[in-house]
Amino acid sequence: MRNDWLHFSNHDFDGRSHDFGVHLWSQIGSFVENSLHNSGQFHILGSSAIHEAFSCMSKFAGALLFWFSTGSNSNFHRKASRNNAHCSKPTSNQSYRHVTHISLRAQDLASLNFGKSASSAVQHLWKEIGQFQSSHVLSLAAALVPPLDNIRSRKILAVPLESTDERIIGSIEQTSREDGRRGCSGLCLSDMSWRRDAIEPRTGIKFPSVLDTSGLPEVLVGTGSRSMRIIKFKSLKVYAFGLYIHPHSLCEKLGQKYASVPINELTNCPDFYHDLLREDIHMTVRLVVNCNGLKVTTVRDAFEKSLRARLQKVNPNTDYHCLSAFRSYFTRDIPLPVGTTIYFRRTANGHLITEIGGQQMGVVHSKDLCRAFFDMYIGDVPVSPQAKHEIAKNVGSIIRSC
Ligand SMILES: CCCCCCCCCCCC(=O)O
C-alpha cells in the first residue's frame, strides 16, 4: 500500500474474492484509524459519529465484497475457452482478465468529518469504481448488495445511481439471499423488491423496473422514445418505450457465450444483437403513447410498413401471413389517448402477443415476426440507437450475473 493512496488492485479474482473484500475492509478501517490519530481528530469525534462512519464504510466494503464474490465477479474469471462469441478477441494467453483498481485519496479519509464525510468518501469510491465499470453495472452491483443491517440507507446506495444516469435501473433491495441466488441466475427477482421506476428522459414517462404481468418477471433493460416528423419542421415524440427481458431466459440462451466479453465490446458486437434476436428469449416492449390524436389504424399501418421490410430481411422466404394476422388485431377503432400502454410480448416459443390498454388483442405464432418486431429496437436500424446501446449494456450486465 502506498503512503498517500489506498490502492486496491484485483488482477484476477480466481478464488481470492473473499480475501479481497476482507482485505479491503481491514485496509479502510486501519487507514481511517491511523489518519484520525495522526490528524488529532480522533479525540474530538463523538463515539457515535465514529461508529456511524465505520458502519457506513463497513456496509460499503460489504457491498464490494458481495459484488466481487458473487454476481459480477463470479463471471469475471470465466475462461476464454468457454467463450465462443465472435466479437470477443482475447489477447495472448491471459484472455479477459479483468483488472480492477479502486483508489481512495488519503486526504479524503484524513479529512473525514464523520457522519457526513463518511458517505462522501463512499461516494468518492463509487466515482472511482465508475471509471472502470459503467453506471449500469453499478446499479446491478447495488442490486446485489447483501442485507447488512440498515443497508437500505439511500445515502450510500442512491447517490451514485442518481448522480450518474436517471435512466438506469433503480436500486434493488434484496430481501433474502439465503435461498439460492444461484438457482435464479444471480439476479433473483423473487428475492427483490424494486424501489424505483425508470424515467425515459425525453418524454418524462415512467417505466417500472420489473414487469410481472405474464408470470415471468422481466427486468427493464432500456428506455427510449420515438420521434416522427409530421410536417417538414415539426416532429412529434409519438411514444416512449421500455424493453424488458426475462433474465433466466437470457442466461440460459446466451449466458455462457457472452459471459467473458467486456460490456463495451458487446455494445459494438453485431453478433450479440443478432443472437438476442435469433434466440427465443422472452422479452417485452412496453410502449406508452405520448401524443393525442393517434388512431389505431395509423399505428397499425406504421407498424406494418416497418415490419414488412424487417421480415424480408429476417427471412427472405417468409410468408407474410403472420403480418396479416398481426394487422388484423388493430382493426377495431380503439382510441389511443396520451398514456395508453401497449405491450408487445415475445414468448420463448415464438408467440408475439399484443395487448393494448389492458386488453389482449391477439397472438401470432411466428418466430420471424418476433424477430422482425424486436429488430425495430435492437436490430441494425433501430428506432433509437441510444436506447439500443443502453439495452446492450444492461443485458451485458445481467449476463455477468448469470
Ligand atoms: C403522427 C404519426 C403517428 C404514427 C404513429 C406510429 C407508431 C408506430 C410506429 C411503428 C414502429 C416504429 O417505427 O416506431
Provide an overview of this structure:
This is Chalcone--flavanone isomerase. It comes from Acorus calamus. One of its GO terms (molecular function) is fatty acid binding. The two termini are 33 Å apart. The chain contains 14 helices and 15 strands. The protein is 43% helix and 20% strand. The chain is an alpha+beta fold. α1 (17-39) packs antiparallel against α2 (47-69), α6 packs antiparallel against α7 (154-164) and α11 crosses α13 (367-378). The relative contact order is 0.11. It has a 7-stranded antiparallel beta sheet. Strands 1-2 form a two-stranded antiparallel ribbon. The chain is globular. The protein has helices at residues 17-39, 47-69, 71-76, 106-110, 116-130, 135-143, 154-164, 247-258, 263-266, 270-278, 296-314, 321-328, 367-378, 385-400; strands at 5-10, 100-105, 172-174, 192-194, 198-199, 206-207, 210-211, 218-231, 234-245, 283-289, 294-295, 335-336, 341-346, 351-356, 359-365. Bound molecules: lauric acid.
